[in-house]
Every structure is written in structure tokens, then in C-alpha cells.
From TrEMBL:
Regions annotated as coiled coil: none
Pfam families noted in UniProt: Pro_isomerase (PF00160)
Organism listed in the record: Ficus carica (Common fig)
Record-linked InterPro entries: Cyclophilin-like_dom_sf (IPR029000), Cyclophilin-type_PPIase_dom (IPR002130), CYP37-like (IPR044259)
The protein's name: PPIase cyclophilin-type domain-containing protein
Annotated GO MF terms: peptidyl-prolyl cis-trans isomerase activity
Ranges of residues in domain PPIase cyclophilin-type: 28-95
């Protein structure tokens, strides 16, 4: 969702170069991000995510990631950020906890 907007945008990327900035920026170490769909790079995967290991040394002008606006960020790691580099493809998450925002959670339907 672009900053200043009240309704999320679906199936579109943000144009950071034109000044559209996301409400939840990608340029944060430990951002929890939806992977791209296997069907299309333009859509988010419904069941795959990753932890973004942002490094300011590899950022563009203004300190933003070059990937900013290309992925859907839905949260941030608040505990255990030091172990993120150790997580590998195929590792299993045994538990996760939603700490805030459950009242805004919209579960997907088969129509989505």
C-alpha cells in the first residue's frame, strides 16, 4: 500500500522512482516479505515468504533498497534477528505469533 493511501493496491508494483513509497518499507533488516509467484513475477506467492536481509551498503540514493516497491512487506522480525542469516531454504518454522493487527486481518477467499 502506498504511503498516504487508505486502500491497498493489488497486482501492481510501486513506482519508487516517481515518489510512491510503501507504508511498510522493504529497506529494513528482517522485513517479512511475500515471495513472487511461480506463475508471474508481478504477483505475490500465496504461500511463500522470505526474510529480507537489508544492507544499507548496497542501497541506492536515499538509502532505499533497489527492490523497494517490488515486493509485498507484511511485517518485521522483532526478536531473533541475529539468526536470520542462518535460515536456509527448506527450514521449517515451528511457530509464529501475530502480535498486533488481527482486527485488520482479511483471510483470502477462493475468488482471490
Amino acid at each position: 500500500m502506498p504511503s498516504g493511501q487508505f486502500e491497498p493496491l493489488y497486482r501492481t508494483t510501486l513506482s519508487v522512482q516517481d515518489g510512491e513509497l510503501p507504508v511498510l518499507p522493504l529497506s529494513v533488516y528482517g522485513a517479512v516479505v511475500m515471495a513472487h509467484s511461480e506463475v508471474s513475477e508481478e504477483y505475490s506467492s500465496p504461500n511463500q515468504f522470505f526474510f529480507y536481509l537489508y544492507d544499507k551498503r548496497n542501497a541506492g540514493l536515499g538509502g532505499l533498497s533497489f527492490d523497494e516497491g517490488q515486493f509485498s512487506v507484511f511485517g518485521y522480525t522483532t526478536v531473533g534477528r541475529d539468526i536470520l542469516p542462518q535460515i536456509k531454504t527448506g527450514d521449517v518454522i515451528k511457530s509464529a505469533k501475530l502480535v498486533d493487527g488481527e482486527d485488520h486481518l482479511i483471510l483470502p477467499t477462493n475468488e482471490s
